Amino acid sequence: MSCKQTQGRRLIAMLKRRGMTTMDMLRTEISVSPWRRITESLKEDERLVKAKNKRGLTVYRVRG
Fold first, then answer.
1. Which sequence spans correspond to the domains of the chain?
2. Residue 47: what are its φ and ψ, rounded to 5°?
3. Which of 14, 18, 36, 44 has the most other CB atoms within 10 Å of its CB?
4. Could you tell me if 61 and 25 are in contact, meaning their C-beta atoms sit under 8 angstroms apart?
5. What's the CA gap between 3 and 62, in Å, rounded?
6. The model's pTM
7. Phi and psi at residue 20, in whole multiples of 5°?
8. HEC profile for 1-64?
9. How confident is the model over 5-17, as pLDDT tens digits?
């Protein structure tokens, strides 16, 4: 039997696959405050990367 993933770990798994804007993270409906859940759940070898895309939107990714 596996443990249920936390909100932060679910968001981190999504951000490892592709970058997401703040609106994209809110649309997942996993958390009302996704950026807080992500920073709480990051492991030591992971980091949250914030960059701008071509349209000028801030995109978040997790590296590590």
1. 7-63
2. -145, 150
3. 14
4. no
5. 22
6. 0.86
7. -135, 145
8. CCCCCCHHHHHHHHHHHCCECHHHHHHCCCCCCHHHHHHHHCCCCCEEEEEECCCCCEEEEEEC
9. 899 999 999 999 9
